[in-house]
Amino acid sequence: MEPRWTATPRATPVILGVPGHRGGGGPFAAAAAAGVVRRLQLQYFCGDAPPAHTQPRWQPSRGPRRTHTCTHAHTLPQGTHPSRACPARFAHPWPGTLTHALFPAALGTLEFDLLYDQASCALHCSILRAKGLKPMDFNGLADPYVKLHLLPGACKANKLKTKTQRNTLNPVWNEDLTYSGITDEDITHKVLRISVCDEDKLSHNEFIGEIRVPLRRLKPSQKKHFNICLERQVPLASPSSMSAALRGISCYLKELEQAEQGPGLLEERGRILLSLSYSSRRRGLLVGIIRCAHLAAMDVNGYSDPYVKTYLRPDVDKKSKHKTCVKKKTLNPEFNQEFFYEMELSTLATKTLEVTVWDYDIGKSNDFIGGVSLGPGARGEARKHWRDCLQQPDTALERWHTLTSELPPAAGALPSA
Which residue ranges are recorded for the region named Disordered (predicted)? Predict the structure, then answer.
């Protein structure tokens, strides 16, 4: 039903949390008094705006209430009511998240393409351009760049970043960023977070806005084009610098983020491409260490010196250890090395293959980067890869696996090269 508008001579918008206005109570009142929330929030009702010549004397009579945040009220001419100068006050639909409900704003739009190449297990992200970005610098411009994370499990290991475009609110990147080792399981469960930030050489880089795209929206080998408005992220300040009113909101948002990523998740440390094949002629397992991608950086130079170790557990005689050569200063090493475990197929069904990636250090213990276990007790793609290897002998099966921060118990005592 269309909202009904009625003329009310004394109707004026309500400014929440500002003394002297109706509706000044609630959680934002104390926050505004403490100087934490400095924006004027205009409370209104849903529906289209009334005609321009009657706008100052109109107010909707029914419909769900919405809140619009006016971030430029301090720039209005003296004597102008904030509600008159903000044309966007009727433009914002009620947001689907608490984050956007608290701090909606015009942050700009981002245009990009996504393509999931199922054959090569790659996610191609083409960052094209942004328009109408929020000014972040004193000159009224910004130095924007785009960074990508995969959720859950966001960390430096899976962060990709474009170049910075200087002094512009309408940057054009036309850059292709690629995630390797993306599986069908990732497409089903993961979300791509695309953040636009302003680079500041003299202080910390500033967040402008973000977009989150569930990868399940993508179809294999079909490029999907996006042109979406950026959303605002609520900055979670330290509890000591926040009012009591906003401290509860901050805690709630942190719990919401943790719930979104799921319970008990391990930090992702990169991907590894493994090949498994049981040779009936040689009566043993061939393990191929092909390459790694997006490894976590363990050295101060932002890189690692990675190598890979494999064990077949249980290993009573402690003779199942194999290791690759060390690749210097890289987060995307290529090994192309193969190891052989002589064993009957029936015995192999009770074993677990442990694969760990390490950072080689001279003069001190090597750093654990990440690991994965394949066997009957594994989960997801790791268990499926092991099962398919046993069921399809004499067939080389290549699969990508996620390296996590969980150190296998037996590997903890084996940090040396």
Answer: 53-84
How many structural domains does the chain have?
A: 3
Residue 349 CB contacts under 8 Å (≥ 6 apart), including other chains: 376, 390
User: Which strands sit side by side in the sheet containing 306-313, from one edge to the other?
Assistant: 322-323, 306-313, 352-359, 367-374, 397-404, 268-279, 284-293, 334-342
Tokens of 65: 């209430």
Q: What's the half-sphere exposure (Cβ side, CA atoms, 13 Å) at 410?
A: 18
DSSP-based three-state secondary structure for 354: strand
- CATH code where residue 140 lies: 2.60.40.150
- Written as tens digits, the pLDDT of the chain (417 aa) is 444 444 444 444 444 444 444 444 444 444 443 333 333 333 333 334 444 444 444 444 444 444 444 444 444 444 444 444 444 444 344 333 444 444 444 899 999 999 999 999 999 999 999 999 999 999 999 999 999 999 887 677 788 999 999 999 999 999 999 999 999 989 999 999 999 999 998 889 999 999 999 999 999 999 999 999 999 865 444 444 445 544 554 444 444 444 444 444 568 899 999 999 999 999 999 999 999 999 999 988 889 999 999 999 888 777 889 999 999 999 999 999 999 999 999 999 999 999 999 999 988 899 999 999 999 989 889 999 999 999 999 999 999 999 988 876 655 444 444
Q: What is the DSSP string of 43-62?
A: EEESSPPPPGGGGGGEEESS
For residue 82, which of 34, 52, 41, 120 has the smallest C-alpha distance?
41
Distance from C-alpha of 109 to C-alpha of 128, rounded to nearest angstrom: 11
As a whole number of angstroms, the distance between CA 366 and CA 363 comes to 9
**151/79 same-domain check:** no
Chain position carrying tokens 């490894």: 295
The domain of 62 spans 5-94
Length reported for the chain: 417
Same domain, yes or no: 216 and 184 = yes
Buried b (16+ CB within 10 A) or exposed e, 233-255: bbeeeeeeebbebbbebbeebee
Within-domain flag for 257:
no
CA atoms within 13 Å, Cβ hemisphere of 238: 2
Whether cis (ω within 30° of 0) applies to the bond prior to 64 is: no
d(CA 160, CA 194): 10
Residues 307, 185 share a domain: no
Say how far apart CA 168 and CA 216 lie, in whole Å: 33
